[in-house]
Amino acid sequence: MRRPVIALCALALVAGCARKADLLVTNGVVWTGLSSGPPQRGAVAIAGDRILAVGDSAAVAPFVGRSTRVLDAGGGMIAPGFNDAHTHFIEGGFQLSAVDLRTAATPQEFVRRLAAFARTRKPGEWILGGDWDHTLWPGQPLPRREWIDSVTPNNPVFIDRLDGHEALANSAALKAAGVTAATPTPSGGEIQHDAKTGEPTGIFKDHALDLIGRAIPDRTPEQIDSALARAMVHAESLGITGTSFMSAPWEGLRSFRRLEKAGRLTIRAALYLPLTDWRAVAESIKAEGQGDAWVRIGGVKGYMDGSAGARTARFYEPYTDSAGYVGLFRSPPESLATWIASADSAGLQIAVHAIGDQANGVLLGIYDSVARMHGARDRRFRDEHAQHLRPQDIPRFGSLGVIASMQPAHLIDDGRWVMQRIGPERIKTTYAFRTILDTHGVLAFGSDWPVASPDPLLGIAAAVTRRTTDGKNPGGWIPNQKITVAEALRAYTWANAYAVFMEKERGTLAPGMLADVVVVDRNLFTTPPDSLEQTRVRVTIVGGKIVFVRT
Question: Which end of the chain is less packed: N or C, by CB atoms within 10 Å?
Answer without folding.
Answer: C
